[in-house]
Amino acid sequence: MTEILIRNAEKKDLPAIQRLLSTYFLDMEELEPEDFVLAEKEGKVIGCAALIRDTSNENTFLELHSIAVHPNLRGKGIGTRLMEYLINTIDSPEMPGAQVCELYVRTTAPGFFEKLGFITMQDAEKLLIWEDCRKCEHFEKCAQHAMKYFRVS
Ligand SMILES: CC(C)(COP(=O)(O)OP(=O)(O)OC[C@H]1O[C@@H](n2cnc3c(N)ncnc32)[C@H](O)[C@@H]1OP(=O)(O)O)[C@@H](O)C(=O)NCCC(=O)NCCS
């Protein structure tokens, strides 16, 4: 199989990211291209994911957004490689020298995140983290599973 490169995105990658996300009717959610990491094969963007620092309910936390892999290349470990790249490059200002990793996601693909070690959050905890969930009239029948990942090494 041709080598797949995982790299940080740049401004020039914007059209390729938008194209990939639109395959799944996802949008940029006000993210910048530089918030993304990309999977690239033969010079083409075939996967993307963004990790950003959010603030909500007076908490600051890392949240994963907009992960997508090209439809023809799903199930080949590319999503996992994007996530491992992100998880392994997180810096912890609180504990220099230690690898502390805590991140959150709201997702319609909980099975994928479970395989990576994420655990499902109960509704009460979801409401504590995300203010927009608290205000959302669709909260009771929301399709988004709230999940978190925590690791110290
Ligand atoms: C979710 C997604 C990014 C996963 O990327 P991927 O490259 O296909 O995932 P991987 O090949 O690394 O899969 C790792 C494992 O997760 C499983 N998996 C992948 N997608 C899954 C899903 N949607 N539901 C349940 N399990 C899933 C795989 O079967 C694999 O299991 P295995 O290790 O037992 O073989 C990709 O399927 C995708 O682009 N989906 C459409 C967009 C989307 O739903 N994004 C999430 C919005 S938050």
TrEMBL record:
PROSITE patterns referenced in this protein's UniProt entry, alphabetically: GNAT
Segments forming domain N-acetyltransferase: 4-136
MF GO annotations: acyltransferase activity, transferring groups other than amino-acyl groups
Key words, A-Z: Acyltransferase, Transferase
InterPro entries, per the entry: Acyl_CoA_acyltransferase (IPR016181), Bact_Acetyltransf (IPR050832), GNAT_dom (IPR000182)
One Pfam family here: Acetyltransf_7
Cross-referenced Gene3D superfamilies: 3.40.630.30
Designated name of the protein: GCN5-related N-acetyltransferase
Source organism phylogeny: Archaea, Methanobacteriati, Methanobacteriota, Stenosarchaea group, Methanomicrobia
